[in-house]
Amino acid sequence: MGIVTRLFLLMALLAASATLATGFFAMHYKVFLELLDLPKFRQEMERWGYEQSMMKDVLKARGKEYVIFLRCGAGAIAVTLAAGQGFRGVILLPIWISLVAAGFSLMMVQDYRAMVLYVSVLLEKCYLSDVMPLGLAQSGKDLTKRVARLPKDAPFEPSLADTLALQRLGVLLALCFVVWVLLQSYRRKDKKVPKLDSFSGYENKRRIVEGLAPGEWFDKKYKDWKDARRVFQNGQRDFSTRSQGDDSLADKVSAIDLSEVKDPHNADGEGTPIYGNFKYEDWVVLSWRYELHLLSHAFPIDAADSDRLGVPEDSDMT
Question: Residue 206 falls within a domain, yes or no?
């Protein structure tokens, strides 16, 4: 995953977290409506250019939509985490949502323990309270009303049921973290195995193959090549005999277009071989090249090793 993708997912995760926090904030809209009636807040709004009636209308509208913000925020966090880490990211969902709830609780009532109430409301609104019951004394509208009054009832004083619910939530988050760490470790181990295999395969390619000898395939191809070379050399001697005293025949060999040759023994249709002007050194170079060609193809056959698919690039043959 590239750095641009990581930055995009981080921004998306922050935006989703802000949406969830907006849902928590909107639950307290009635408390803020009461604050707007205080002279100090009214003067502050007028100083910033806001009308009291407009702010009340906005708070009422957003307050009635808090469930939408909660669901959209939680869903967006889940999608973003899944996009970044797949199933491992989904396991982090309860942890991340709890962190958002804890941060919001510190901001609103200066006590992170109130997070258990926000998380409980979220579970109810997402129809997950039966799947992850935290065991609070209140539920439904009673729980929602209690959370809505939190800023007004500050400081937060958790009941015994709240403390037990917070402990259950802590155990759940710890389990999620342990599972995530195990999956992360397993994933890293899977990544290391191919690297180790690749390294061992690379080292294996560089080792000398003990007892390597030409096999049946090479022996047959080499015999065929010696027979073909003998035919070529006999043809060259015949052409050399015919061209003695006739320089035009030697010139015909030089004029042959090799890209259009179909028969090396009769390149121009008049019995002129492409090797008509070959000298001793030409036959040596041709033999070297073709024999190296045979060796390079015979090597993986005779080595019989899946790591050795060809001659290593840094060998003397290449």
Answer: no
